[in-house]
Description:
- The protein is mostly helical.
- It has 5 helices and no strands.
- The protein has helices spanning 7-10, 27-37, 40-50, 52-58, 66-78.
- Helix 2 packs antiparallel against helix 3 (40-50).
- The protein is globular, with a radius of gyration of 12 Å.
Amino acid sequence: MENPIPATVLKYFWGDNTQNLSLLDNKKYIVQTLLEKGDTPDIKWLFSEVGEPQIKALLPDLKLSVKSANFWKIFFEAKT
């Protein structure tokens, strides 16, 4: 069984039915939302649950603002 999404993370999904929100079923949406809006503890949770390689692989397909997309591109480039 997958770990539940913490309440601190669910605050970003106020317009969604959070009872049906699952990291397994909604991974891309959750990653996209947290990379765009998440704070440090929420990003740490995301990286611990999804893993850096998967997040990096999803990055080209995410709909992020130019500012966020550039930040995460630089973030991952600095780690290589």
